[in-house]
């Protein structure tokens, strides 16, 4: 699975999505009501003033044939008018006074102005098709994905088995031991792309899903080669890498449900929905403003039933597949966060510990190569024996990067060059760690 390159990572996935979500050619095939699409077109025209067909196609991510049907309906209703052609070719459309009033009414109900949303019923099928749990991770996959990472074979085996289980994972251990870094790289085991809708329609509510801060777009070569606008995969879906969402101490319960912004009159998807078909890492577990038990209890039903119930307000709820790998990462003892009954619901509890001297040496070498400086065994010996052993400091994976970087900072400041000296590393050490001798 891991060996597939980005350029050909998703041909089979694309074919499956093509069958499930072909380009709609009629309003009926969009899964949306003609009145809904009519209001959306009016909002776009209200926002832009005048638009021709190519711009409407671009803005709404729908085919010309669908938009022609909607525009015909709006013209009959007296809400739009034809304002001539662009460059003698494309017709331009604008709102009538009736249309402007209709657009204002539509905006009062929903402030969403974007691509046509994807129906929630079709979205459920899409999530199941693109499930992150359909693969089988092998030992060779794990070794390939983490070839450049210093990690024990026992931990690789634990992580690999956890990825195959489809269950939640808790990673715990001291700060700086690489928990977040390692867990975020797990997404590399799943090379194929996924298709993410701009937004989904839940009855009349439009919930935005695509987030450029979460979803990294890929160029869909199959779509690029297809010059026919009425063919290919539904353009309301964007080809993206599988998402990774990492949230820490700032996480609140409100972020785990659909949020309605009364000012913009728009709905925003919760974090776990943006992470669908991907990885959701709750970092610094136990540091959030909400009680750990309250936060953990939020996941009992999704973890056990693989479905999530989201609240849209006004007594409205929506059920969606809970398809992601949920990772809890904490510096605390897991038994301080939850009782054993809850921890049993989390399939794997993986303990990250401090490094051995050999592991630390391998990371030090890697950082020297990355920074373009010569590896000096004697200098590393000074760091290990003269600093770590003397001060009883544990070996942590992030230290080589930070200490070498700070030593180079000082060297550049002093307009120096050449190999780093023990004095420069000791200076970095004194500035990196909190010094307690000031108390005495």
TrEMBL record:
Gene3D superfamilies from the UniProt entry: P-loop containing nucleotide triphosphate hydrolases (3.40.50.300)
Keywords, comma-separated and alphabetical: DNA-binding
Which positions carry the signal peptide feature in this UniProt record?
Answer: none
Q: Where is this region: Disordered?
A: 1-24
AAA+ ATPase domain: from which residue to which, for each copy? 165-352
Q: Which domain of life is it from?
A: Bacteria
Protein name (record): AAA family ATPase
Species name: Pseudomonas benzenivorans
Q: What is the lineage of its organism?
A: Bacteria, Pseudomonadati, Pseudomonadota, Gammaproteobacteria, Pseudomonadales
């Amino acid at each position: 699975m891991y060996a597939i390159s980005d350029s050909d990572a998703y041909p089979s996935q694309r074919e499956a999505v093509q069958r499930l979500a072909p380009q709609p050619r009629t309003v009926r095939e969009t899964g949306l009501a003609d009145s809904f699409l009519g209001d959306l077109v009016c909002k776009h025209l209200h926002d832009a003033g005048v638009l021709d067909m190519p711009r409407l196609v671009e803005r709404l991510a729908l085919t010309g044939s669908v938009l022609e049907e909607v525009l015909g309906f709006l013209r009959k209703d007296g809400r739009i008018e034809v304002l001539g052609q662009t460059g003698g070719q494309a017709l331009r459309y604008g709102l009538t006074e009736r249309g402007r009033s209709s657009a204002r009414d539509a905006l009062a109900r929903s402030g969403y102005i974007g691509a046509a949303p994807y129906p929630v019923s079709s979205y459920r099928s899409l999530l199941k098709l693109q499930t992150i749990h359909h693969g089988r991770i092998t030992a060779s996959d794990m070794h390939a994905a983490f070839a450049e990472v210093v990690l024990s074979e026992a931990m690789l085996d634990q992580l690999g088995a956890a990825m195959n289980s489809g269950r939640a994972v808790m990673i715990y251990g001291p700060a700086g031991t690489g928990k977040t870094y390692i867990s975020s790289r797990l997404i590399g085991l799943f090379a194929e792309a996924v298709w993410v809708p701009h937004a989904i329609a839940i009855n009349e509510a439009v919930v935005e899903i695509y987030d450029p801060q979460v979803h990294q777009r890929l160029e869909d070569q199959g779509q690029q080669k297809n010059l026919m606008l009425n063919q290919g995969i539904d353009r309301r879906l964007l080809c993206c890498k599988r998402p990774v969402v990492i949230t820490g101490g700032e996480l609140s319960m409100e972020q785990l449900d659909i949020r309605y912004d009364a000012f913009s009159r728009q709905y925003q998807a919760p974090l776990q929905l943006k992470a669908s078909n991907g990885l959701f890492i709750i970092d610094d577990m136990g540091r959030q403003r909400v009680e750990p038990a309250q936060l953990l209890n939020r996941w009992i039903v999704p973890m056990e039933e693989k479905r999530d119930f989201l609240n849209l307000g006004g007594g409205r709820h929506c059920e969606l597949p809970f398809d992601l790998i949920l990772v809890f990462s904490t510096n605390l003892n897991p038994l301080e966060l939850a009782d054993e009954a809850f921890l049993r619901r989390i399939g794997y509890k993986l303990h990250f510990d401090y490094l051995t001297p050999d592991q630390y040496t391998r990371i030090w070498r890697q950082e020297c190569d990355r920074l373009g400086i010569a590896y000096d065994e004697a200098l590393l010996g000074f760091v290990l024996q003269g600093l770590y052993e003397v001060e009883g400091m544990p070996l942590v994976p992030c230290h080589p990067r930070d200490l070498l970087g700070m030593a180079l900072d000082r060297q550049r400041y002093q307009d120096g060059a050449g190999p780093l000296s023990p004095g420069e590393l000791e200076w970095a050490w004194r500035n990196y760690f909190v010094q307690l001798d000031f108390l005495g």
